[in-house]
């Protein structure tokens, strides 16, 4: 049986749009068919009655040029890999920050397929490696996404599953959680979903943790 060979794609007559990104307004000339298929946001902007539609140019000064280039690379090649360099506890480097930033960009422009790819890549790393996203990365994700975002869900679930009692009791961690109540709320939901019910304190005698002890000054 003959295998159908896709028709060779021609580029000569494919229209492009120009996206001026970042403070330097770096120009990205992107084929509109690829851009519009991936992003309903850009399709609406360039097919509406707004100025972008007639000028075929849009300025995106708030976006980072490097992260946007990753988006364009995905747009044409449908690939993205989370940085392989492991986290370094001696520095602030976090390999998860780049994919989170790219997810935020994709979320901003409604690029669902890229968001799903990023989350799937992060999931694989979380299953196989010991690296965990740091507080800065988690905070960035929460500050730039909506309540039901999938990146929030995977970060909260991972935090809940990897959190130790020592970490949760530390003053630094408690301050961070108080400063990020949305994270705390999602982590509580994750605990409720994944904590085995047989570990409930209400299955036997009352735990001593519920009994207020005498203070040292009272002894």
Describe the fold and architecture:
By secondary structure, the chain is mostly helical. 51% of the residues lie in helices and 7% in strands. It is built from 11 helices and 3 strands; from the N terminus they run ββαααβαααααααα. It has helices at residues 32-38, 40-46, 51-55, 65-77, 97-108, 112-128, 135-143, 150-162, 165-169, 171-179, 181-194, and strands at residues 16-21, 26-31, 57-60. The chain has a 3-stranded mixed β-sheet with strand order 2-1-3. The chain starts with 15 loop residues before the first strand and ends in a 25-residue tail after the last helix. The model has no long low-confidence stretch (mean pLDDT 85).
Biggest sheet statistics? 3 strands, mixed
Q: In angstroms, what is the radius of gyration? A: 23 Å
Number of strands: 3
Low-confidence stretches: none
Shape by Cα distribution: elongated
Instruction: Give the DSSP E fraction (strand runs of 2 or more residues).
Output: 5-15%
Structural class: mainly alpha
In DSSP terms (H or I, runs of 4 or more residues), the helix count works out at: 11
pLDDT averaged over residues: 85
Instruction: Report strand order across the widest sheet.
Output: 2-1-3
Helix content estimate: 40-55%
Q: How far apart, in Å, are the first and last alpha carbons?
A: 89 Å
Question: How would you spell out the order of helices and strands?
Answer: EEHHHEHHHHHHHH
